[in-house]
Amino acid sequence: MEKEIIINNQPDEITRIAQFIDELGMSLQLPPSITMSVNLAIEEAISNIIHHGYPTNKEGEITLLTSVAPGILTARIIDNGISFDPTERNTDADNIISLDQQLTQGLGLFLIRRTMDKVEYHSTESQNELTLIKKIDMDFKPEASLKTNICKIEEVTILTIEGRLDTANSNDFNVVISPLLSMPTPNIIINVEGLLYISSSGLRSLITLQKCVRQHQGVLVIEAMRPEILKIFDMTGCSSLFTIR
Fold first, then answer.
1. Considering the domain 147-244, what is its CATH architecture?
2. Could you give the CA distance from residue 199 to residue 63 in angstroms, rounded to a whole number?
3. What are the residues whose beta carbons fall under 8 Å from the beta carbon of 172, sequence distance 6 or more?
4. How confident is the model at residue 7 (pLDDT cuts 50, 70, 90)?
5. For the segment 51-84, what is each residue's pLDDT rounded down to a tens digit?
6. Residue 54 and residue 81 in contact, taking contact as beta carbons nearer than 8 Å
7. What's the 3-state SS for 23-53?
8. pLDDT tens digits, 89-143
9. d(CA 66, CA 166)
10. Measured between alpha carbons, how far is 111 from 235 in angstroms, rounded to an integer?
11. Which contiguous run of DSSP H or E holds residue 9?
12. Residue 54 burial class via C-beta count within 10 angstroms: exposed 0-12, middle 13-18, buried 19 and up
């Protein structure tokens, strides 16, 4: 089975990619953890192409081709922007740079390498092709869009996050949490029991909130995190930045 989608190099087009992967997962009956890994890697790859592969205001197209063989899902991402090989890595730099540096110098690429089973890159004078390979199982349950709620009980602010916290809605999420960034001595609990997916954009938003809370001598606790979300926090080192219970 093969499927294809072509998008413009605009951030809001990533929503179409997420829907495309969800529909693919549904057709294959993939488990949520596999669908999330595939979606995360593809989103990060395409987001990098959109933000760094083209000069400002230059229009371009990005093609996503997916194919399925027994036990393997292959995604090929083709663009004609600036060539960049995400398979190249500096081992020493990975061990030395701080988490803050990783967030601005390749957290997305790190997530791609950690969530996919194989990553290959080829480039010609006219186009770039990134191939992502994931071993797959069966049994899919659809995921929800982002829902948030903020309430205050006595001196505790409770932020509830449900659904997807990804590139497409991270700006909306930043608007939601903006009042929390300047609270004096904040005491915040984030309930993520219903959080089904988080990308590097979502991680950055939470880290920004955590930094502001610390600057104002407050406390932030994340509660009821699903194992698949905790895995993302662990693999990026973000677990050490938060109190998770």
1. 2-Layer Sandwich (3.30)
2. 21
3. 146
4. very high
5. 888 888 888 999 999 998 888 999 999 999 988 8
6. yes
7. HHHHHHCCCHHHHHHHHHHHHHHHHHHHHHC
8. 554 444 545 555 555 456 778 888 889 999 999 988 889 999 999 988 654 344 4
9. 21
10. 8
11. none
12. middle
Residue 219, CA atoms < 13 Å, CB-side half-sphere: 7
Rg (CA), the chain: 18
Do strands 243-244 and 219-223 pair parallel, antiparallel, or not at all (unpaired)?
Answer: parallel
Token duo for residue 219? 């406390």
pLDDT in tens, 152-202: 998 999 999 999 898 878 889 999 999 999 999 999 999 999 998 898 989
CA distance 14 to 44: 10
Q: Which two tokens stand for residue 193?
A: 């029991």
- The CATH architecture that domain 2-135 belongs to is 2-Layer Sandwich (3.30)
86-95 long-range CB contacts below 8 Å, 24 or more apart? 86/45, 86/48, 86/112, 86/113, 86/119, 86/121, 86/130, 87/119, 87/120, 87/121, 89/113
Q: Please identify which residue in the block is written with the tokens 């930094």.
A: 211
CA separation for the pair 77, 46 (Å, rounded): 8
Any idea where the domains of the chain sit in the sequence? 2-135, 147-244
* Rounded (5°) CA angle 9-54-22: 30
